[in-house]
Amino acid sequence: MPESTTSRPATPTHQSAAAAKPRETAPSREGSLVWLLRQIALPRRRRFTVTALATLGVCGSIVTPLIYGAITNVIVDGASGPEPMPWSRLWTLVGVQATLFVAIFVCNLSQGLLLTSAIARAVYGLRARVEAKIHRLPLRVLESGSRGELMSKITAHTDNATTVVGPILVSAPTSVLTVVVVTVLLFVVSPLLAAIALIAAPVSAVLAVLVARRARPHLVTQWTTTAVLTGHIEEELSARRMVSAYGAESITGRRFDELNDRLFGSVRSAQWASGTLAPLVTAVNSAVFVTLAVVGGIQVIHGDLSLGAAQAVILLSQQLSSGMRELAAFYPRIQSGSVSAGKVREVLETPEDDDHGTSMNGGDRPEAADIQAMAIDGAVGGVQTGRHHRPPEIDFDAVDFAYDPETPVLRGVSFTIGSGSTTAIVGSTGSGKTTLTRLLQAFYPTDGGRIRIDGTDIRTLGRDATRSAMAVVTQEPWLFTGTVRENIAYGAPPDAAEPAADVTGADARLERALVDGHVGQIIAALPDGLDTAVGHDADNLSAGERQLITVTRAMAAEPSILILDEATSAADPRTELLIQQALHRLRSRTTTLLITHRLATAARADQIVVLEDGQVVEVGTHADLLAADGLYARRCRADVVTDGAAVGSASGSGAASGPTG
Ligand SMILES: Nc1ncnc2c1ncn2[C@@H]1O[C@H](COP(=O)(O)OP(=O)(O)OP(=O)(O)O)[C@@H](O)[C@H]1O
């Protein structure tokens, strides 16, 4: 739902690296292509029509040299023989030839159009499947891979893989058909000339294999480097201010140059390798062509062959060589396509979250309808409509978790957040606070223990039902390209079940959130108010403004569970107070998990959980914890010393009195 950005760059771990490797061995080249054709699966009738049209086109083209030959013979006989010129026969042949040209044109054109549109549709579907799959991949897989590589798989590799579909389905079979039929015809017309013409075939095939073998490693390097370069540029753009601040342009520039050089080298080598094929095959064919012309001419002089037949042989041999050239060029293309098909396959065959298969709990997972009913009843909330009656209770029960099996992050964490209450998690850096929120959002399964929402294990609820109840605001607010209004309304979409009927409801939620979020003043100061465009990095807004907009978006969602992870860290104390007051008003409808380093903020929560080194060391209200004089109390005293600001005494606890947030 509204926001689920994580605030920390991914740290690859042993476990995640293993998870990122979807298969031990890369799929075989043939395997990838067969797999790709299965994915593309053009409709049978369309395939049949395209094949029939292509076959007719090829047959028409093959017949034309024979008709040319017949026309030549009629003219030669009519001009030099005793009989007068058979004009009607000549015009008939010319008419047949002209009709054939038109028919070939129509067949080739309609075949090309039908095939192109069918492939474009199939690619559209394939790209959509890859995109949808990305959302179902376990987070570990996404965290461990490079973003550039993933982007390449979704865009460039998907496109490149599908460029081989047309050649596999149509060009290659029609080229084979041309070569076979032309060879047979050549043998019928003149076995000697046919044998000479065929010399080119094995030579071209051997050349194609040798060239493709040389090109393949360069193609692989080209694709891998393109992916790394894309990732590097993306990273450079998103961190451009930091890069400038540290004067690190030369460092990133050097890395860019290095990758650019590598890409240039691999592209040049791949093109050098595959570029030699066409001229080599053409040279072989030219030699064969000259030989045919000489031998055919001698046969005509000796009267062993008519002039028309010799002409037909030469034209047929041209068709033979162009068919073979196409087949030779097909091989490197297949190589490049198969590399890309393998990459796309890797994504689509990566095992998904358990959640999308069977529940870890086996058979006791509720049906979708049950979950919906629970959501409407308020059991798992109803973020989008605010239909829930009672915010849920959340129970962390002996939760263990590790990103990397060697390094436990959470150990036996247990605490309960009462319905409609606010629990603040405090603890040192790296103690596991954000990790707790990620587990609650079902981004990772727990290694031990349970997390329950109103008594139901979230693994039983399923990922989507669990998250549908939540709104999350992190310390690094995520805004998408659009207007401020769209960014806030993202949290309050119309009811999916009745979108038309709920437009007013969504508007009302948006208005309410604007008032509650206290963003009115800020929005009024923006050039176009609510319609101010927000760029990708929201550079035109301050960090505090961005946070305020994301908090407002979360409010517009009217969630039954609200997760605030250092959500107001960039806001000034007055703005923070306003946000806290607004969040306080949500309290009766929302169960809140609040992560903060500001103890003054934590002090106002109903319950404070102190986390140290992945373990709960203290739980209680601000007053309880001060009275216990443990770690929390010591931190409060240290805060007073360092900040000069009192967090609050036991008697003045904000737990019951103040706003939360
Ligand atoms: N995606 C990840 N992969 C591997 N290790 C991670 C990942 N995210 C966090 N960690 C590690 O888990 C531990 C707990 O991190 P977490 O973000 O939960 O701490 P935190 O208490 O929220 O810290 P902070 O107060 O700095 O935000 C840290 O040691 C961190 O390095």
What's the quick description here?
With 661 residues, the chain is α/β, with parallel strands linked by helices. The protein contains 25 helices and twelve strands. A six-stranded mixed beta sheet has the order 6-9-10-3-11-12, sandwiched between helices. A four-stranded antiparallel beta sheet has the order 2-1-4-5.
Could you describe the 3D structure shown?
There is one protein chain. The chain is of the alpha/beta class and 661 residues long. The protein folds into two domains: 23-348, ABC transporter transmembrane region fold (Up-down Bundle), CATH 1.20.1560.10; 370-643, P-loop containing nucleotide triphosphate hydrolases (Rossmann fold). Helix content is 61%, strand content 9%. It has helices spanning 14-20, 29-40, 44-80, 87-136, 139-144, 147-162, 165-189, 191-198, 200-238, 240-245, 249-275, 277-301, 307-348, 368-377, 433-440, 458-461, 463-468, 484-489, 503-516, 520-525, 543-556, 573-586, 599-602, 622-628, 631-643; strands spanning 394-401, 410-417, 422-427, 448-453, 456-457, 470-473, 482-483, 533-534, 561-565, 591-595, 607-612, 615-620. It has a six-stranded mixed beta sheet with strand order 6-9-10-3-11-12, with helices on both faces. It has a four-stranded antiparallel beta sheet with strand order 2-1-4-5. Helix 4 packs antiparallel against helix 6. The two termini are 19 Å apart. The relative contact order is 0.10. Adenosine-5'-triphosphate (ATP) binds at residues 8, 10-11, 13, 143, 403, 409, 427, 429-435. The site of adenosine-5'-triphosphate has 15 residues, from helix 15.
